[in-house]
Design goal:
The chain has 10 helices and no strands. With about 230 residues, it is mostly helical.
């Protein structure tokens, strides 16, 4: 009887003290589910290139969790290099052989809107697509003071018009819809950052961001643009 009891106790200890590896997959799945749940506000599953925006958002979150939000030009440059390098590794992103350098990012940071316009103009895209993208970027800039929900609705309406546009070739829609998807998620990430800054402002003085949310989005689009064509 004594041996039987000892066996039961031993079995209990084996199951109760199982290694962390048995738990980690569930924890990772929980974290992944939470992340997807948070970003679902920004989703537009009607966009066939939605995964591009989701991947951008996930990479941005991974970097932020490890390094925090950038508070200097160097930190922002490092963040953009990380996003660029990871987008180049992803076949859903990269079609370009151009490697983004710190010097290129410095030029983009100096004049984000001008550099993005130059990248669009110097691309191999058709005149109609260039005009379409320039109009979209201009509209984003004009709505920089609007709430995220309003801007998100605008972007989704824009995506719908692109998808339904029979005059655009499918390979032309590719770049436009990827730009729109990244814009939605980038602006959402900045909206979440502002919310956190507001919550902590009661007890601590928040650090003023280097750039506004729409500027960060324009910078990200300029850095990633060559990988989206």
């Amino acid at each position: 009887m004594k041996n039987f009891v000892l066996c039961i106790v031993a079995l209990f200890l084996v199951f109760a003290c199982s290694p962390d590896e048995d738990v980690r997959p569930e924890e990772n799945n929980k974290q992944s589910s939470t992340l997807m749940s948070e970003s679902s506000i920004a989703q537009n599953l009607a966009n066939p290139y939605e995964q591009t925006g989701i991947d951008y958002y996930n990479q941005l979150n991974l970097y932020t969790k490890s390094h925090g939000y950038p508070n200097s030009v160097q930190q922002l440059t490092d963040q953009m290099l990380y996003l660029s390098n990871n987008s180049r590794k992803d076949t859903k992103f990269s079609k370009s052989a151009i490697t983004i350098t710190p010097e290129m990012i410095a030029l983009i940071l100096a004049e984000p809107e001008v550099k993005l316009a130059e990248l669009i103009e110097n691309s191999s895209l058709s005149l109609e697509v260039k005009s379409n993208l320039n109009g979209f970027v201009s509209d984003l800039i004009e709505q920089q003071e609007d709430d995220y929900d309003e801007v998100c609705s605008f972007i989704i309406s824009y995506e719908t018009s692109v998808i339904e546009n029979i005059l655009l070739q499918e390979d032309e829609k590719d770049t436009i819809l990827k730009v729109a998807s990244i814009s939605r998620y980038s602006l959402y990430a900045e909206a979440r950052r502002r919310d956190r800054d507001w919550e902590t402002a009661i007890t601590t003085k928040p650090t003023k961001p280097l750039f506004d949310g729409d500027e960060i989005t324009i910078i990200a689009l300029a850095v990633l643009f060559n990988t989206l064509q």
